[in-house]
Amino acid sequence: MTTGVEQTVAIIVGAGPAGLSTAASLHKLSIPYILLEREDCIASLFNKKAFDRFHLHLPKRFCQLAHMPFPSNLPTFVPRAELLKYYDDYACRFEIKPKFGNLVKSAKYDEDRKIWKVETKIVADGDGGGFRCYEARYLVVATGENCEPFIPEVDGLSEFKGEVIHSTRYKSGKKYENKNVLVVGAGNSGMEVAHDLSEYGAKTSIVVRSPIHIISKCKLMYGDITKYGMQRPKEGPFLIKVRTNKYPVIDMGVFENIKSGKIQVLPALKSINSGGDEVVFENGKCYQFHTIIFATGFKTSTLLWLQGNDCYFNKDGTSKAMFPNNWKGENGFYCAGLAGTGLIGAAMDAQKIADDIFNLIST
């Protein structure tokens, strides 16, 4: 059953950092909006899907939301607990009150009425289900680059006898003490999970399939890493970020544990053997593990519900328009934080979007 239509000036989809920055920017300009969020909290990626000892990978000045810097007393690399408090304080300061439990099922532009129509399914506990409709002149997609956890297809993975999880379900290495654990994915999340596991006494291995840059907190690149089973790319970290949207690994202690042998580096994962008790790697070697943790990133769900999305997004969910014009489409459509420019880029997008809407409704 669908309830009555609720109308406003702008609809924001997603109450992560990009959505919060957009909401605050609209609030400062007194522009009415509705913020839709499928989860029951803001910043759900950090609230529900980050492990206990998580820290931001970049210095805080590159991660702050629009109009409100991090407190000066916080460390350069903000820990999870302080990050969540910052988000809660931010929502309070700018009077952000998302409509939680609203899973967007479709968003379509009505050419005749010149409005966006958004239909959601109610997934909040105790709400009884059903659907709701929202209408607005402007639509802002702020679902972020990290939306749906992605686990790649691996031959025989369904037969694996141990535990298989995505890194978003990993909370602490405490329960893995003395267990053989394989981490698949050598980005910042994978490296931090591997480090956390090794610090709790897990027998940790990590798959490093491609060349990577490892940089200290002081932005110093380590030298020869081939003797530890890893390769450095020919291109520098900045060029790689521009070309592929991949950040270098910021070393939070993992490199020392790799050097000491507490973390074993392995090549690309090939398959799980027919008995389901051994993992086979590209070099032909096999190892047994109790758990496999996939830190293999995310995929977007926006393409499933945004009708006519081929006008706005590539197949991977990134904006077709290049920075700095990535934030604006046609017919009152906007996207925040989908250009591969990180949290600081999302904050910049949000302010541009709010200013543009303000200018349009003021003329």
Automatic annotation (TrEMBL):
Swiss-Prot/TrEMBL cofactor(s): FAD
Record-listed E.C. numbers: 1.14.13.168
The UniProt record lists the keyword ATP-binding: no
Source organism, top-level taxon: Eukaryota
Cross-referenced InterPro entries: Auxin_biosynth/cation_transpt, FAD/NAD-bd_sf
Keywords for this protein: Auxin biosynthesis, FAD, Flavoprotein, Monooxygenase, NADP, Oxidoreductase
Enzyme class: oxidoreductase
Pathway this chain belongs to: Plant hormone metabolism; auxin biosynthesis
GO biological process, one term: auxin biosynthetic process
GO terms, molecular function: flavin adenine dinucleotide binding; indole-3-pyruvate monooxygenase activity; monooxygenase activity
Reactions it catalyzes: indole-3-pyruvate + NADPH + O2 + H(+) = (indol-3-yl)acetate + CO2 + NADP(+) + H2O
Stated family: Belongs to the FMO family.
Protein name: indole-3-pyruvate monooxygenase
Origin species: Helianthus annuus (Common sunflower)
